[in-house]
Structures are given as C-alpha cells and as structure tokens.
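Dear support,

We are seeing what looks like truncated structure output for some complexes. This example has two components. We would appreciate it if you could run it in full and send us the complete token output so we can diff it against ours.
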Amino acid sequence: MSEKAMAPRDQGAPDYTQYLHPLMAKNYGKWDYHERLRPGVLVHVAENGDKLYTVRAGSPRTMSADTVRKVCDIADKYCEGFVRFTTRANIEFLLGDASQLDGLINTVEKDLGWPVGGTGPSVSNIAHTQGWLHCNLPGTDAAGSVKAMMDDLIEEFKTESFPNRVHLSTSCCQINCASHGDISVIVQHHHPPRINHDNMQICELPKVVAICPAAAIRPAVVNGNESVEVVQEKCMYCGACHGQCPSMEIRDAQTDTLSIWVGGKMSNARSAPTFMKLAVWGIPNNPPRWPEVSAAIRRILTAYKEGAKDWERVGEWIERIGWQRFFEKTGFPFTKYHIDDSPEALSNLNRSAMVRL
Amino acid sequence: MSNEDSSPGMALKTPLLNELESGPWPSFVKDLKEYSKKRPQIVQLLNQLEESYENKWNYWLGKIINVPGYGGGVIARVSEKADKYPALANFHTVRVIEPPGWVYNTAALRNLADSAERHGAGILQLHGMSGDILLLGFDDNGSMNVAEDLMNDGWDIGGSGAAMRTLQCCVGQARCEMACFDTMKTTKFITDSFIEFLHRPEFVYKFKFKLSGCGNDCGNSIVRSDMPIIGTWRGPMQVNQEKVAEFIDEKGLEYLIDNVITRCPTRCLSVRGKELKVEDSECVRCMHCINVMNKALKPGKDRGVTILVGGHRTLKIGDTMSSVLVPFMKLETDEDLENLKEFIERVWEFWNDNGMDHERIGEFIHRVGMATFLDGIGMEPDPRMILRPRTSPYIKFEELAPTRFGGEQTQNPKVWNRESEGPETAD
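Here is the complete output from our reference environment:
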C-alpha cells in the first residue's frame, strides 16, 4: 500500500451537476414532453422550446478501458462529452444539434458496433448479473447468454414492434440479482447441497444454520469436527447456505437447469407491479450460446406480439387471456410444478368458478 | 503494482468463447480478446472463463478484503485455479458510487478507465445490478491503490455487506417531464447523509434505496429495493384540453377509448366530445394516461413522494413486493429532506434493534407484522397501506383483553369500558 495511507474520507456520491449536458442543466425540472423520432432516438422538449436529443444504444455492460475510451471519443465529437446509462445497461448519447444525429448513429453502429434502439415498445437490453466471469456463486454465465440472446433479438431491439416494452433479465442463480422482468431466465438446482465437512472451519456455523429458509440445516459433529447436516426432505435446493458458506456446494454441472419466468413488471402503469411466474422449466444449461433459451423466448415473444393488445405488458396480456391460453399459445406444457406451494400458494389458485371452457 | 505482468506468453485458447464473437450484438469476448493483446492477465481471465464454459463450472471464491477504514467496497475474488492462472490469484472487484442517474462527462469516464487500467485489469461494468460502477481485476495492493486514486479524484467506494447499498435512481427532472421530485438530488442527499452506513456495514443485513420520479418506476424500485421512493402528486392532474382535442384528431376517438379511458385502473377517466374528464379523487397516479398522452396530460402541481418499504428478491421467504409506508410526503425543501432523513433513521433503528441476523426489512415486517412495525417506528396505520383489511378473526385487541398473569393493565380500555375481571391467575 502506498505511503499516503487512507483514512475514511466519506466523500459520498459524485456531484452529478457537473455531468449534466448543458441543456439538461438549463432545463432541469422544466421539461414539457418527449417524442420518439425513430427507434432508439428520443427528443425531449423543454418549456422554453429547447430540444435535447437522445440516441440510445445497447452496451455489452462489461467493457475494456479501451472501449470506454472509444465511447468517450464519440461523445466528445458529437455530444459535448455528455452521456448517460440506463437501468438496463443501455448507453444514451445526448446532443442538442439534430443535424448531428445521422452522423452519431452511424458512428455508434459502425465504429463502436453498438446497435441503436431499445426505446418504446421494443425488447430492451437484458438486465444481467456477473456469471462465470466474476461471481462466486453462479451456475451459469450471464454476459455470454445475454450476447447470444440479443444476437437473436437484435431486430426486436432495433424496432418498436411490440404491444408494449419488453424487459428481459437473466440471473446466474436463484438469488436473481437481475430481478423480475417481463421474461426472466434463472438457474435452478435439483438436489441438496453437498457438504465439504473438511472445510467447514471457514464458515460461521450458526449463520449457516440460521440462513436456511426451510430450517433444514442443523449442527452436527462429523468425523470429530463441528459441521452441519441437511435434512434432505426439508431442503428446497435454494442455495441460500451456499452464499453463506462455500463448503455447502449447491451447484451441479450435470443437473443444473435453466427456467424461464414471465409477467414481472415494476411499473405501476395500468396495473399494480407484479412478480414473474414460472413458464418453462428444465431447459439445459448449454453454453456457449444456450440455443434452447433463445428458442423458448422467441416462442413467448411471438405469442405475445400476436395476442396482446396495445399497451399490455406480457403479464397483463397473460392475465387477460388466462394462463390456460398462455400455455396453449406457446405450446409449453403445464405441469404440477407450475402450481405454487409457497406460503402464498392458496392465493395463487383460481378461487372462483370463472373458467374458460 | 498489479498482477498484469505475471505469466507472460500464455496462449489464448477459447474455442467456445469464440462462438460469442460473431453476431450483431456487441461482444464482450471480442472486446476482451482485443484488449488482452496489451493486458496479458486478460488472457488468463478468458482462458479460465473458457474452462467454465467447457465444464459448466465456476472457479471464483470469495474472501474478505477491505480498504483501511472501510467495511465495504471491495468484492474479493480469488481463483481456484490460481496455480494455472496466477494473474487471477487475487482479482477483486471495486464498487464505486455512481453519479445519480448515471450521468457522466467523458473526463469522468476516462478517469475511471485510467484508474481501472492503472491498478487492475482495466475492465469496467456499467453498471452493477445495485447501480454501482464495477471495476474488475485488482489484487490486494491494486485494490488499495485504486481506492486511493479514485478518492483523490473525487469518487467514493462502498456498498457491500450488511450495509446501506449504493443508491439508484431514474434520470428524473434532468430529462423527464414526468418526474415529480428531484431524484438525483435526493439520491445524493441520502448517500451523503448516511455515507458511514455505506462504508461500514453495521446493519443486520443489506438495505437498498431506489428512487423513481413517478409510478413508471424506471429506477426499478418497487421489487428491487428495501425502501422505494416514488414521485407522485396531490390534487388534480394537469389537463390541456386543446392538446386532448389534438390527440383525438390525430389518433381517433376509438384509440382514446381503447387505450386510455378503458385502461384506467380506477375508471376515473371519461370523454365528452373532445374533452377529457378526470375524477381526480379516484386517480391512483398509475401514470398510464400520462404516458399515452404526454403532451396533453401532466402530473399535478402539488408534488411529492410515496415511500414504500420491504421489497427484495426471493431469498429467504420468497419475493416481497414493497408496500406503502408513507402515502405522501413533500420532498422539495431542505427541511423536507431533513424530515426524510429523520424518518429513515426511525425505520432503521427499529429494524436494527429487533431484526435478526441476515433479515431484510421486508422479512422482518413479514415476521413481526406490519402493525407491530408501525408501532415500532411510531406511525399511525393508514388505509392506503393495505389492499383490504384482514379476514382472520384471531386478533389480540389490546383494548379488550384483560391483563393476564398478574400485574397492572398497561392500557386503559379505549373501546370496551367494562371493568377488568382481573388477572386470570388470581384465586
């Protein structure tokens, strides 16, 4: 460590005012309306008539310092040096001069190789997690599966052809750091953790016991050492203990599978926010391109595009037509595993005589 | 200095990853392969990732590394395959607090890129799922040195462990006509006011704030944060009837009926001729009609926030959606912000005094009950906090129950004035 050893400096969040495009700073809180000029291009109009143009492009999220510098070169040339990023890892180039739009779009797509789109009723960039590149818990990769999926969905990113926006997310374990989306992919495990009793000294055993949501872990002495045991019948293979203690190994390269969940929604528009629900399970974890995942997502998107009314999100469309129709239209089997057995389970049954026949 | 020079000359061997180079979406593999020409340690990173692809197995372990004085900010990663890939023996992530709303100028981005490259692998992720800037690939010394450089350049690190996490907010008033409060300013205010809790984990578990300027929730707050702060307004929304008429002329009356009137969740919209009528007392600020007719309709002028509590993903009790805690709070003046700060402190105090280890606040409320939680933080119940009242008749009415097992009754009956029958145990 250097001589200038640190004490906590508690500097806090950066002063964002220095990073605001001049038109943002000038019209802060004074915006009137916005329009989408074409997919990926927004114009925000201020009360005084000022116009700020935004060109949105999909980023790979993980990027080298050199790629960041290429982004900066473009922003310096076209945007007075101002950009922002979105919740779904898109970049937004900001500019005040509409005559520069074509040049900017061309440079972003050709030189940087990042597609322009992701606005309005399109499939936006996929919120995703760390995966094999750098996480300590993953059962699959994130950046790679996102790359493969978005290769397949590139036209859906670059056009606005859906009833409403489609948010995708992928997560590499059931903790699901990328959270709920209209369509979400997560990993699932299929047996209790294997316990490495010889390496339990690295873990705080009371915490390992306490973290289990199923109360399936209890202290045990194994080979004369303090360890734990797992009540197999109680364990639901969630992997909470694995996050707490690496000696509780939940992952299994041979048996882990992927599942697809639909109908998550954060927005309050029209209907209250909703969680994602199980659609398809047992999809192979198949690097490097996970073709089965892309194919399943394509089936859901095709049915959504054909069946949903304007402004309906995936979950709203399914709630309207009913889950029976969802499984019919997508062709995915409905199984006993789709029926909830969580503490919320009864409230997820059809508690009425309202049945489509 | 960092581990970049170790094991020079290792050949890149990534047949599986190479399949992620083609195709129209930008490829992180292509980028990192190109970059590995000047950063040999990235060859090792890609070769290890290739093994993960081949064996469907992960080779990273965690450990704990902290910058002196900090309890968070460095996510330590060590490779199980350090013998084979020595440059990955210590390959940590540093979490940097992002500018609210993820706004940057290129000087700031270049500065981050330079710091990432000077002390580590030179890989950036914009951004992490908690909203933070992630810089990858620092060994122990590199982690300390990059933190030093970052702090000298005005950045700050933190947000891991049982701590307040980096906040996240939408673009807000900087570029959105729908934002009902200053998301960026509030994000900076909360971050700075409680920065010690972001730097030094001392909660029972993590705590996340996410802020969105309106109910569209572009900040993804309601499921993904322990305390979503979402913009809203009191009183009537703003309606420009001329623009309503223009909308009808352009799109047709049927479009208005099918996509606006009938999509209102509380049926508070109706159309008479080319005039839109809004029953404002029934409006729940869902934002749909404003989204569709954003030139004609705007949020009302008396703006503030709704504060919710308890959202988090599935571990351990299953997903919890945040629910309403404060139906409306003004958030404009410095005094308003101080009120918010005081409110957050009250919530934290009760949760941290009574929560169990590793218990998110949503799980805590699930365990003790929302009514107990409200008692604990000193808030009156409000019907806007619930969808419907309880259906279970098993209730411990404090006002009605006689004291048991001796002792004085702690509260005077408020409803039932019958004389106490005395403790059950008295002979």
